[in-house]
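A reminder from the course coordinator: this example appears on the midterm review sheet, so study it carefully.

Given structure:
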């Protein structure tokens, strides 16, 4: 084999490795500063080896990206007091620029049931938007972070839930199907909760359209008069 051929193959292999490493999973739940083990409370995802994202917002994978029907039963249920700081730790840093959010869904009959979260029961409790100004353009404060955390509203009713963390990576989102969705669903039991009424609620799939302005966007060539990032999905419920 010629040196030139060998060099080409080496560069291609390194490129493939780099691309794979730039993708990620969210295997670890964080509860009040404690990081749990991989997949201890998070449903093991189909990309647990490849790290590949979801790109089709109409697929069932957009909900929790489970490996298969055994993922729910294989993960435990973490006890989390309402008002706690929770979050997810990816297997590498959040390499891609994008938008982060967190949703919850009441889990019936239990958080480790494969039938939990299948209906229009999801409500958003947090988001971290890209920032924009005419001077600096679009910036991404959460890029390269090692974890992301947020608070479960104190008025969240007690009970079992799915907690869904998501990043929508926007680096190649200029065409339909280009945005990359990185997703993890943790199974939790909220205790010491309140009497709030979470909402508005949405279903996954159904919450997003492939042409939503926060999903179909060229972050490197924003249109004239651009006014700022428009987050997809419902408004945040803060309790």
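Designed residues:
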């Amino acid at each position: 084999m010629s040196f030139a051929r060998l060099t080409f193959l080496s560069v291609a292999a390194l490129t493939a490795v780099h691309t794979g490493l730039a993708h990620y999973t969210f295997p670890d739940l964080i509860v009040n500063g404690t990081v749990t083990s991989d997949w201890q409370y998070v449903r093991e995802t189909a990309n647990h080896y490849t790290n590949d994202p979801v790109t089709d917002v109409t697929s069932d994978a957009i909900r929790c990206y489970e490996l298969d029907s055994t993922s729910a039963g294989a993960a435990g249920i973490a006890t989390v007091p309402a008002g706690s700081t929770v979050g997810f730790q990816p297997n590498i840093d959040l390499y891609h620029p994008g938008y982060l959010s967190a949703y919850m869904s009441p889990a019936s009959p239990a958080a480790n049931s494969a039938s939990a979260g299948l209906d229009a029961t999801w409500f958003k409790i947090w988001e971290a938007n890209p920032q924009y100004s005419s001077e600096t353009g679009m910036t991404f404060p959460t890029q390269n972070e090692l974890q992301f955390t947020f608070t479960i509203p104190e008025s969240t009713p007690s009970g079992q839930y799915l907690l869904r963390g998501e990043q929508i990576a926007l680096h190649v989102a200029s065409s339909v199907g280009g945005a990359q969705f990185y997703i993890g669903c943790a199974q939790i039991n909220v205790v010491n909760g309140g009497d709030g009424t979470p909402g508005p609620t949405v279903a996954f799939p159904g919450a997003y359209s492939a042409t939503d302005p926060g999903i179909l966007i060229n972050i490197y060539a924003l249109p004239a008069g651009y006014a700022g990032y428009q987050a997809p999905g419902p408004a945040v419920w803060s309790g």
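The two ends are 65 Å apart (CA to CA). The mean pLDDT is 91.
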